[in-house]
Amino acid sequence: METLKNLESQILTAIEKIRDLKEAKTALERRTRELEALVNQKNEEILTLTGEKNSIKAQIESLLAELQDLE
């Protein structure tokens, strides 16, 4: 009878651990999705800033070329 109670206790402990692990997994999956969304947002910002930088660079090069023509 004692063996059966020990087995029951072990099973209940295992069930509780499984439940905790499932909750932790769900939380980690949610956090992963949040971080992936943030990375995607930052990548879009980088692309936008790179485009702006290239545009400004082209404008500066054009202005420098005009200044050189004046000399």
Mind explaining what this structure looks like?
- The protein has 71 residues and is mainly α.
- It has one domain (1-71).
- Helix content is 97%, strand content 0%.
The secondary-structure element order is H
Mean pLDDT: 96
Distance between the termini: 104 Å
Shape: rod-shaped
Give the low-confidence spans: none
Number of helices: 1
Say how many strands there are. Answer: 0
Q: How much helicity do the residues have?
A: over 70%
Main beta sheet: strand number and arrangement? none
Count the domains.
1
- Label the structural class: mainly alpha
Instruction: Write down the Rg.
Output: 30 Å
Question: Strand portion, in percent?
Answer: under 5%
